[in-house]
Amino acid sequence: MATDEFSLIAQYFSACGAEGDDTLLGVGDDCALLAPPAGEVLAVTTDTLISSVHFPHHSPARLIAQRALAVNLSDMAAMGATPRWFQLALTLPDSDQSWLAEFSAGLNAMACEFNCALVGGDTTRGPLTISITLIGTVPSREALKRSGAKPGDTVFVSGTLGDGAAGLAVVEGRLSLSVEDTGFLEERFWQPQARVAQGLKIREFASAAIDISDGLVADLGHIAKASQVGALVEVDKLPLSPALRRAAGSERGLTWALSGGDDYELCFTVPASGLAQCQRLIDEGVLTATAIGQITAGQAVRCVDGQGSSYDVTHSGYQHF
């Protein structure tokens, strides 16, 4: 049984994930030693999850762990990068053995699924906080960025939108649904589908990309700002799951899809030269994506309904401050 920091690390985190030959030295020393593939550069991202801010207090440890890694994996997907290693900074109110066993099992399962290895980190006492730094690689000059969109590009999103916000409402007890819809939406909140494989595919033809963490309007706005362009979103084309439609109705469903956040789907732009390849991948089932609008001149993100009339978004997206 782990009784101190070092025995805790040894018992629960010494062999987490899929460690390969590119890990020269992992958990247990002052630093990890890593060997990126030749011709590739590092992609590095960090996300922090805090109890009662990013997830309800007393949530299942396994789900907390998997969500913590999944949100980092989503950043990697948006860059078209391959996840390889991660570090974990874990702040705990106490060393609850059953909680740690469940947390480490969930983390290990997610890490193995995406073939990345835990290579270091830190543990300390305090309010429950999980910070993960994920390190990946991408061929030099092939990384997807926010800054490549051009007027005339088509805007796509992967998967369905609004499920994350609806799932949080279910988790917090604000929505009462059927068993099937409850299970679907809770899973969409706790275990967002990191689109890593799709990120590698769209890297071949997309001009810009971002993952949708704060809401479509806010995150597409980041692409618009970085690319110095505008965007037009046709709200009638937004992909909504049947569970979301039943849970929220069309109006609230659209609000959650546009600004709810927590979806961790990809929003990406495709120039005319890449549309045929993109559509082929969609037709083959390799890519799950929907065209929802266009990149325009200007700097604002505008939303319109099916008649072309302006559609007002009352809440632009999640912000901490």
Mean pLDDT: 92
Report the CATH topology name of the largest domain.
Answer: Phosphoribosyl-aminoimidazole Synthetase, Chain A, domain 2
Supply Rg: 20 Å
Cα distance spanning the termini: 41 Å
CATH homologous superfamily (4th level) name of the largest domain: PurM-like C-terminal domain
**Topology, number of strands:** 12
Q: Number of domains in the coordinates?
A: 2
Give helix % range.
25-40%
Parts with pLDDT < 50 across at least 5 consecutive residues = none
Order of helices and strands: HEEEHEHEEEHHHEHEHEHEE
Q: Helix count?
A: 9
Spatial arrangement of strands, main beta sheet:
8-10-7-11-9-12
Oligomer: single chain
Care to describe what's here?
- This protein is α+β, with helices and mostly antiparallel strands and 321 residues long.
- It folds into 2 domains: 5-139, PurM-like, N-terminal domain (60s Ribosomal Protein L30, Chain: A, 2-Layer Sandwich), CATH 3.30.1330.10; 146-304, Phosphoribosyl-aminoimidazole Synthetase, Chain A, domain 2 (Alpha-Beta Complex), CATH 3.90.650.
- It has 9 helices and 12 strands.
- It has helices spanning 5-12, 61-78, 97-113, 163-171, 179-190, 196-202, 216-227, 242-259, 275-283, and strands at 23-25, 33-34, 40-50, 82-92, 117-125, 129-139, 154-158, 208-212, 230-234, 265-270, 289-296, 301-304.
- A 6-stranded mixed beta sheet has the order 8-10-7-11-9-12, with helices on both faces. A 4-stranded mixed beta sheet has the order 3-6-4-5, covered by helices on one side.
- Strand 4, helix 3 (97-113) and strand 5 (117-125) form a beta-alpha-beta unit.
- Helix 4 (163-171) crosses helix 5 and helix 5 packs parallel to helix 8.
- The longest helix has 18 residues, at 61-78.
- The model has no long low-confidence stretch (mean pLDDT 92).
